[in-house]
Amino acid sequence: MKKLFLLLTIVGLAVQVQAQKINKSTVPKPAAATFKNAHPGVNDVDWKKNGDIFEAEYDVNKVETTDCYTAAGVLVETKEKLAAASVPAAIMAYVKKNYEEDEVRKAYKITSAGGTVTYKAKVKGMILFFDSEGKFVKSVKA
Prior knowledge:
Layout: H1 2-16, E1 20-22, H2 29-38, E2 46-50, E3 53-60, E4 63-69, E5 75-81, H3 89-98, E6 106-112, E7 117-123, E8 126-130, E9 136-141
Antiparallel strand pairs: 1-2, 2-3, 3-4, 4-5, 5-6, 6-7, 7-8, 8-9
């Protein structure tokens, strides 16, 4: 199960690189409706399309958040951008040990629809993946 989730996360991130901003009117009604039901007070939403996934980007308490949906309106995952102070200590220790000259440029907490949490951190030229406890899983070139 963990391998499947990791594979889906990596595929999702690869597709994310090719994200295309789209007009709200082109978002499938089920995806838009699921988002609206989950976040009734959120009106400022930017939509992007990554392959078959529709991403709703919005802020929650000044935190950049992205919900990823299928066209049928099924939530795939939610990504929250982390402030530097919110990056788990285990991730920061790994980066400091293995990328001494670099720092975490961006970090995200990714929660699958099933509740599994993983983390993604970007350092110079690399994207690092960590499990829910902050243990290193894999890296890919950015």
